[in-house]
């Protein structure tokens, strides 16, 4: 449902990563198809390569990746039967390239990711005076880290109430 919402009326893709090895996998694939029936997903088969599978997709659409674990299994155990121990690193690189490729093509995000930011707790944890130069340096570093993780709204109470302290007790 989130993928459909994020598509905002545009294309939404189900990135299928499982390569069937028998009846149990066939049943699972059938269930996944039934689960998204009527939701307007376009299925993109990417059992062997995300880059190749997503090449023809509208990058302004939204994507629901079926299973990174199935993709890793496909990379590690190719049809040749030889286990590929470099698969985790190769898959990580392909995921990074794919994410960067899609991210460069995305319009400005409308989704707001909000986190509480208790700066007085940072002062307490790092044993610095609230509003000191060191305090502001720490706050700035944490705010920058939040932005790097995709947070685009911080709610900052002036002081954090001691909710874990019994009435009349000390914190």
Give a description of the structure.
The protein is an alpha/beta fold and 171 residues long. The protein contains seven helices and five strands. The protein has helices spanning 2-7, 23-35, 50-53, 68-76, 87-105, 119-126, 133-148; strands at 12-16, 42-45, 62-65, 114-116, 153-155. Helix 4 (68-76) crosses helix 5. It is elongated and about 65 Å long. It starts with a helix and ends in a 16-residue tail after the last strand. 9% of the residues are buried. The mean pLDDT is 82.
* Envelope shape: elongated
Give the helix tally: 7
Low-confidence stretches: none
Strand residue content: 5-15%
Which percent range fits the helix content? 40-55%
Rg from Cα: 23 Å
Give the strand order, joined by hyphens, for the main sheet. 2-1-3
Please give the number of β-strands.
5
The span between the termini is 43 Å
The structural class is alpha/beta
Averaged pLDDT: 82
What composes the largest sheet?
3 strands, parallel
Written as H for each helix and E for each strand, in order along the chain, the element string is HEHEHEHHEHHE
